[in-house]
Design goal:
Layout (H helix, E strand, L loop, with lengths): L2 H14 L16 E6 L2 E5 L7 E6 L2 E5 L7 H9 L6 E5 L5 H4 L2 H6 L3 E5 H9 L8 E3 L2 E6 L2 E7 L10 E5 L4 E10 L19 H9 L5 E7 L2 E2 H23 L4 H10 L5 H14 L2
Parallel strand pairs: 4-5, 5-6, 6-7, 11-12
Antiparallel strand pairs: 1-2, 2-3, 3-4, 8-9, 9-10, 10-11, 12-13
């Protein structure tokens, strides 16, 4: 299987926290709901798969954070039409997985500029992923559109991947977190993409970087619109996950014993184990 195929399967299965068989869901458009977060911020959602899309509405155009699978493009555009007639000027990818960036190519064909971290674009290039970003940055960037400000921050640590970013809407006090945070039914536990440079050990540091920002509401990578307290609670979970794995490996526990813990204590499913357990053990050796 090619790296590109693995990346696509990972993205689809991650969205459900489910086995490889569910990856086929990425080929079918999802039924989407539009959730009002602020007067000018909406979430286009079906909770679990694919990832959430955040839409900032301005009088000079729309800015999206993440754009789901390619198959979801038309439904995203239909959903946007229920709240605005403005065109999409920018899409920010919180990381390279195709349940967050799969719609890039179709948006770019319509005149949208795609934005991502340097590392996220590098992964898209390495996996021959279409819709590679037009604009990249290393640490932070700012977009001004229609009198509104959007701040994009690298989390400064490897977490879900090595190219995760969060997007802050400072005037609205809303944060789009990407997959460093998931919260709600159908979402997965901390699933580290080791081929994509992720790290369970550094994940809490990534959440710390997000928590330093000034916001009240969090739109996670998957799940339900949440609060800063929810993200603080998730940080505790991420640290517990890291500490537990470190202790198990230092104690010389077998792979089978470690698998029992991640399944029982952290709700890992078959796909988590197949994709990330070996990498997880190796990271803590």
């Amino acid at each position: 299987m090619s790296k590109h195929s693995i990346a696509r399967l990972f993205s689809a299965a991650l969205a459900l926290g489910a086995p490889f068989a569910h990856a086929q869901l990425g080929s079918q458009p999802a039924k989407l709901d539009v959730i009002k977060v602020r007067d000018d911020i909406y979430v286009i959602s079906n909770v679990a798969v694919p990832g959430l899309t955040t839409a900032l509405i301005t009088n000079e155009g729309v800015l999206l954070v993440d754009d789901k699978f390619e198959a979801d493009h038309d439904n995203i555009m239909k959903a946007l039409k229920t709240v605005t007639n403005q065109p999409v000027k920018y899409v920010i990818n919180t990381h390279y997985h195709t349940d967050h960036s799969g719609g890039n190519a179709k948006l770019q064909a319509e005149g949208t500029l795609a934005v991502a971290s340097d590392n996220a674009r590098a992964r898209m290039v390495a996996t021959n992923q279409p819709g590679q970003p037009n604009i990249t940055f290393s640490d932070r960037s700012t977009i001004h559109l229609g009198g509104k400000t959007v701040e994009i921050y690298s989390v400064g640590a490897r977490a879900h991947t090595n190219g995760d970013v969060v997007v802050l809407f400072p005037q609205q006090r809303v944060l789009s977190s990407g997959d460093i945070f998931a919260n709600g039914p159908g979402t997965s536990a901390e699933l580290v993409d080791y081929p994509g440079g992720g790290s369970a050990k550094e994940w809490p540091k990534a959440v710390d970087a997000a928590l330093k920002l000034d916001f009240d509401t969090v739109i996670p990578g998957h799940g339900l619109v949440s609060t800063k307290k929810d993200l603080q609670d998730y940080r505790v979970r991420a640290q517990n996950f890291s500490d537990t794995l470190s202790q198990l490996v230092k104690q010389g526990k077998s792979k089978a014993d470690i698998e029992k813990v991640v399944r029982g204590q952290f709700a890992w499913e078959d796909f988590h184990v197949q994709f990330a357990l070996d990498g997880l053990i190796n990271e803590f050796k």
